[in-house]
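Reopening this one. Same input as before:
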Amino acid sequence: MGRRLPFVVVTKPTEAACNLDCSNLFLSLQRAALSRIKTTDGGDRLEQYVRTFLAEQPDGPVTFVWQGGEPTLMGLEFFRRAVALAESHRRPAQEVSHSFQTNGVVIDDQWAEFFAKNNPWWR
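Same output, byte for byte:
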């Protein structure tokens, strides 16, 4: 087997679902077709995704990139679980971080605390 190279996957847990109704976003056409989609599975599929992603990454830095639509629609517990799963499934030589793209509408003290705890460069 050849050398593993790191790669990035932008994960869209909410597909194109968003909590804003912007007409100028690049997802506008997708949102029209997928306007009521929300993935609620936080169990087996999430764990399988995290486990597989980490298994395929080399040692060293590994970044989960969460985007949308609007990823906060999944809820804070979904991301707490994702972070916990990544910690439990990472190899000792993997340094896991999480990147998060959001419109910021629902960011409150709980979200801010979560980001600060799980992404030291935001402190």
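So the earlier flakiness isn't reproducible anymore. For the record, Strands lie at 10-11, 60-66, 94-100.
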